[in-house]
UniProtKB/TrEMBL annotation:
Residues 4-119 form the Semialdehyde dehydrogenase NAD-binding domain. It comes from Vagococcus humatus. Pathway: Amino-acid biosynthesis; L-lysine biosynthesis via DAP pathway; (S)-tetrahydrodipicolinate from L-aspartate: step 2/4; Amino-acid biosynthesis; L-methionine biosynthesis via de novo pathway; L-homoserine from L-aspartate: step 2/3; Amino-acid biosynthesis; L-threonine biosynthesis; L-threonine from L-aspartate: step 2/5. Catalyzes the NADPH-dependent formation of L-aspartate-semialdehyde (L-ASA) by the reductive dephosphorylation of L-aspartyl-4-phosphate. The gene is asd. This is Aspartate-semialdehyde dehydrogenase.
Amino acid sequence: KTCRLAILGVTGAVGQEMLSILSEKKWPSNNLRIFASAKSAGKKFPFRETELVVEQLTPDSFNEIEVVLSALDNDVAQRFIPIAVEKGCLVIDNSSLYRLNQQVPLVIPEINPEDISSQNGVIANPNCSTIIALMAIAPLHACYPIQSMIVSTYQAVSGAGIKGMEELTTQTHDLQMNKIPQPAIFPRQIAYNLIPQIGSFDEEGNTSEELKLQNESRKILHHQDLQVICTCVRVPVIRSHSESITLFFEQDLDVSQVKVILSHAKGVKVVDDPLNYEYPTPLDTSNQDLIYVGRIRKQPIGNQTAISFWCCGDQLRKGAATNSIQILESYLKDYA
Ligand code: 2RA
């Protein structure tokens, strides 16, 4: 199924990924328009057998549009998404603006597609680290409810967009040339380093990125009592996020049961033969949509059952653009 579709913020890392994935999926080029700021208007991008021209995003951009894939940052999204909704568009939004709004469904199509039915003009795309973690957690939680979880993330620089990716490559080059790197996008040097801060800190010392994973997981799993301890770290990796996850279950279960559930989970690939160096790495998962899970093991923690594992996923694809387009496909299949 198709519709008159627009990408907003097409020149950014996520917008570019949306264009590339729609081209892979053979979306009809006559049903797609691409928008960005005035400075990018007129730019051309190849799309399937043709090329598309960037139009300046204005309040009148939505007159002929049915569905919007928005890759706009929060400040610009705030201006334009209400206009698009008011003009009758459905907006699938990648910003964090509406994710915790009770009136707005927050959707990972493999996990809670039914929540799309409650949309009133906006469907929110979850944060990338939430999507990648829940793709492994949700199928386990569906069989064996979890009480709490501890998550440490190792997030690629693509999460900070094109400028974030450029900063890593530039700093790495500078260091090889014995030049002192100048941090700009990230608060500290990222080349050959790790930064335990993504977003801003609250009064308890948690970052906004860590609170996103906690609050979005509770909403998507419909599990408001879920206890989450999360630490989000920026790492010198280009475009795949990695996450170390420990789940605490009410009931006892074994590694073999976990592997069976994950092996059947949609969008997940179990890669777990550590003695042969078979485990997920960010280079394995980049430029494809599956979430790889490995290092699956049971932890002896008192009278609780704890299962730990390691997962990796492409931040720009399944973490953002692919998930948004899967929401579009679910909407067109079941509601349009
Ligand atoms: C990051 N998840 O990785 C945030 C926003 N994409 O920077």
